[in-house]
């Protein structure tokens, strides 16, 4: 009973970190779900150019934590977060206000810098404010907050896109980033990194140490396959659904099935697998994710055999592609519940004391490779 009580006891800075993560994810996913559409319809890039820009943007965003995680250990987590949300607010605002080809690339670069600070710092804060009794639950709560933010961001993106215009999604993201900046300024205190400030040679030695951790690097490469499939929610599904279902389709709401599943299931599933080794839980996720991709691939076959609409109980109709998307994306959300909290827990346990930012920066490399 005592252990059960201890495992749910978290510090104030733990909750502050989770709240700003929620805000950052709400801003990011609201923008990212519409990014490819924005780049083609507003900025003027071709489909292929927008695909490359979106892919490189996501890759650099998840490569940056390697360097910015180590830099955050140097300058302190609070300063790193203040810097991060300043860059994010500027980047999102410029993306909406100056939608030219050159400025859109500059804006995305600002977002890369800001976002690549947030990821390792928040994950490292969770590591520093939990212990062996509550770390798994700490990361499950963290991941629940990530998905609440993801759900909220994409929910706001739909009416903003259809009622006001695509550029207003970026203004919304800028405002959310400013709110997160204010929260960090007022409430994020108590995480000391003074013992972790190292010179450049020590940082390079830290990088080499991570690269020599073969087990950790192999896991990153394997998990990249999961995120390669999951990443299609943003890379291809928005345009695919608008073209196949019609302009009345709502790709934001299709993709929102994923975080909705995670919000409700991540904590009970993490509790269920708490006695499993992290690798076992990750393995379950890797077994589920190909099933989700296979399910989504069946949408043209269902449309061919069922026609344009399928009626449920004589009350409402859904397009076959909509039905398949809901099923496939639900499976992806279920797989994420098994994967992400235990993956970050595993990564945090690989980190020597004082190098949490560095290791949890490397933990995001899976999406770079994806």
Notes on the structure:
The structure is a single chain. The protein has helices at 2-7, 12-32, 35-43, 47-75, 77-97, 101-128, 135-164, 167-187, 200-212, 214-230, 232-235, 237-244, 251-255, 257-272, 278-297, 299-306, 320-350, 356-362, 365-369, and strands spanning 310-312, 316-318. Helix 2 runs antiparallel to helix 8 and helix 15 (278-297) packs antiparallel against helix 17. The protein has a single domain (11-369), classed as Growth Hormone, Chain: A (Up-down Bundle), CATH 1.20.1250.20. The model is unreliable at 1-7 (pLDDT under 50). It is mainly α.
Q: What order do the helices and strands come in, and which of them pair?
A:
Blueprint: H1 2-7, H2 12-32, H3 35-43, H4 47-75, H5 77-97, H6 101-128, H7 135-164, H8 167-187, H9 200-212, H10 214-230, H11 232-235, H12 237-244, H13 251-255, H14 257-272, H15 278-297, H16 299-306, E1 310-312, E2 316-318, H17 320-350, H18 356-362, H19 365-369
Antiparallel strand pairs: 1-2
How many distinct folded domains?
A: 1
**Poorly predicted tracts of residues:** 1-7
Secondary structure tally, helices: 19
CATH architecture level-2 label: Up-down Bundle
The secondary-structure class comes to mainly alpha
Biggest beta-sheet profile:
2 strands, antiparallel
Please tell me how large the radius of gyration is: 20 Å
Helicity range of the residues?
A: over 70%
């Amino acid at each position: 009973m005592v252990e059960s009580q201890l495992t749910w006891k978290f510090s104030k800075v733990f909750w502050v970190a989770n709240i700003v993560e929620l805000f950052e994810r709400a801003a990011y996913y609201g923008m990212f779900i519409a990014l490819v559409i924005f780049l083609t319809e507003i900025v003027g890039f071709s489909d292929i150019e927008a695909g490359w820009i979106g892919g490189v943007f996501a890759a650099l965003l998840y490569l940056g934590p390697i360097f910015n995680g180590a830099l955050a250990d140097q300058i302190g987590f609070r300063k790193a977060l203040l810097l991060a949300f300043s860059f994010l607010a500027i980047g999102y605002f410029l993306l909406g206000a100056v939608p030219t080809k050159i400025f859109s690339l500059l804006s995305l670069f600002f977002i890369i810098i800001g976002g690549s600070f947030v990821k390792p710092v928040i994950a490292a804060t969770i590591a520093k404010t939990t212990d062996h009794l509550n770390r798994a639950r700490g990361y499950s709560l963290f991941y629940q907050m990530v998905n609440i933010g993801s759900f909220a961001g994409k929910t706001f993106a739909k009416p903003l896109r259809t009622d006001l215009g695509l550029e207003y999604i970026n203004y919304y993201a800028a405002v959310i980033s400013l709110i997160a900046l204010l929260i960090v300024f007022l409430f994020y205190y108590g995480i000391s990194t003074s013992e972790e400030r190292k010179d450049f040679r020590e940082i390079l030695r830290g990088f080499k140490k991570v690269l020599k951790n073969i087990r950790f690097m192999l896991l990153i490469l394997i998990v990249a396959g999961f995120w390669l499939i999951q990443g299609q929610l943003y890379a291809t599904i928005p345009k695919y659904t608008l073209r196949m279902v019609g302009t009345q389709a709502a790709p934001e709401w299709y993709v929102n099935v994923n975080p909705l599943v995670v919000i409700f299931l991540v904590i009970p599933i993490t509790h269920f697998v708490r006695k499993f080794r992290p690798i076992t839980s990750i393995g379950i996720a890797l077994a589920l994710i190909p099933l989700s991709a296979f399910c989504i691939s069946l949408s043209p076959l269902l449309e061919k055999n069922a026609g344009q609409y399928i009626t449920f109980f004589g009350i409402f109709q859904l397009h076959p592609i909509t039905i398949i998307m809901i099923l496939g994306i639900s499976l992806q959300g279920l797989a994420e519940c098994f994967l992400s909290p235990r993956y970050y827990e595993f990564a945090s346990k690989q980190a020597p004391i004082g190098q949490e930012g560095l290791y949890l920066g490397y933990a995001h490399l899976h999406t770079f490779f994806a």
